[in-house]
Structures are given as structure tokens and as C-alpha cells.
Amino acid sequence: MGTDLMKLATKQAVKQKFAQSVAFMQQTRNLSLSFLYGHGMIPYRLGLIFLLVVGLCSCGNLTSSGLNRSNFKIGSNVTPIREIKPEQDNQAIVYIQGQVEKQAPLMKQWAYQINDSTGKIWVVTNQKNLVEGAQVVIKGKVRYRSIPLAGKELGEVYLEEE
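The chain above was modelled as a monomer; its predicted structure follows.
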């Protein structure tokens, strides 16, 4: 009989602890849900939106040199094609933005003529999917190929995409 009373007391103690745990979890859940859905949520949402907007604005440089309505540029580091000079030792890396005007297949690469309204330049790349008329931004190394012909220099500057 003593063991039966012990088992009964143990079962009741376990049930009581279980009921206390469930009650505690219910209170915690109600507290967290009231925080999320209560009337105090609007200031938190506004604060979060404010932080997101400030964070996004600080990620980019939105000065007049970076964005321009009449001549949209991705960033201030885009080089106008007219500023790329044909120097034999120049192997600078530049970004250009423009429209694909012509394409020419090479052995294992493609060449595309890009026009940005300040000039035109050929770009050698491994990309095959650029179509005529597409707007592109390309990062490339400035190259110069000397072509002396009949005493004249007919060399041309081009970009090799990085």
C-alpha cells in the first residue's frame, strides 16, 4: 500500500509540475504576442523602417556625379569612352557603360563595339549573350594594339574584359 501511495504522489507531483510549465509557457507566449501585436508596435515598425532607409541610403553615393537624369550612370567610376587614350603602356582597369552596336565572333571569345554617346570602343570578352541594342556595364583592362601600315599607325585601343 505504501508503494501505491508513493506512485500516486509522484504522478500528482509530475502533473502539477507539468501544469506549472504549461502555464508558464502560456504566460510567456501571451506576453511575447502582446508585444508583437499590441498598440506599441507602430513605433517599432517606424523605427525599423527608418533604420532600413538610412542604411540603404548610406550604402550608395547618390551625389550629382553618380546619378544624372539626362545621362544615367551606374556610378561615378564609369569612364566616358572619349577619355580612354591609346597609350601603349596603359593597362588601367576601367568601367564603361553604353549600348552594344556591333558584335564579332572570335576564336574562343567575342568582340562587341560599345557606344556611350562620347565615343565607341571594342571590348573583347568571353560573354556570348550580349545582343545588339543592349545597355551594358563592363569592367575591362585598357589594351592597345599597334598596327603600322605603309608608314602610318593604324593601331586601336580596346578593352579586354576582366
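Residues 2-37 form the longest helix (36 residues).
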